[in-house]
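Input sequence (308 aa), recorded before submission:
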Amino acid sequence: MARILIVGAGLTGSLCATLLRRAAFGPLHLTVWDKAGDPGGRMTTISCACSPPCTADLGAQYITCTPHYAKKHQSFYDELLAHDILKPLTSPIEGMVVKEGDYNFVAPQGVSSIVKHYLKESGAEIYFRQRVTQINLRNDKWEVSKETGPPEQFDLVVLTMPVPQILQLQGDIVNLINDCQRQQLESVSYSSRYALGLFYEAGTKIDVPWAGQYISSNPCIRFISIDNKKRHIESSEIGPSLVIHTTVSFGVAYLEHKIEDVQEVIIQQLENILPGLPQPVDTKCQRWRYSQVKNPRLQVLLPTVLAK
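Predicted structure, token format:
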């Protein structure tokens, strides 16, 4: 039985696992490792510590289906819609640019539900808090080392993490990437930003006419979402959640600052846009060091596959 390791439990890793499972002609042992404590990657959904049903998407806010991808990936959209994982975005998003033929969707149970669906479909064994450090070739197998625990061997390894993290790996993988490939990989760059989730008590009212708003006049904040309203989840028993995404320029300027200090700055700027907000019962500030690829033409290099 072939043993395959997929490193990264985000959208790419989870979908890759499902596609491998569906395409397999025989028995296949699939394993997924992720350095985080939960699935999702940049499609992560977090819960309020004191009220778990209150959630917020700190990564992707909605899914845009362009005419090109509607034709190319229609089966995936159909599957997610059939399982009620995606629903059309009907709540107002001020400042959103809508191009002809585009359709926008939200995930009512949080955007990480897309990733969780594909991980479940794959039947893979999922392990979290597994940070890969080295990849070596041993006896015609890939021996993968991690920060904790003994190394394990696989027939094939698929790397779906951001390029800089791939280039930091040690072992034989360093010599397997030729100069041309390394030059291309090193030229991949990412935007950086912060996301802040604010959770409020049940019954709290945030009186604005929109579910999301793009901000063009603030040096810190680029996007605000009343997240439960955006996802059509409004209940008297569950408090609202607010998500703030910063500008890229702010993210770069504050990239190495303490999370607590960054959160304070974002909240101060939010007060200028939405004055008088009540005190949240819980907060979560997320640093997205690798938020979005800035030169998409090089995405064809990923995921990186190591086959014996």
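Checked by second reader. The chain is about 25% helix and 30% strand.
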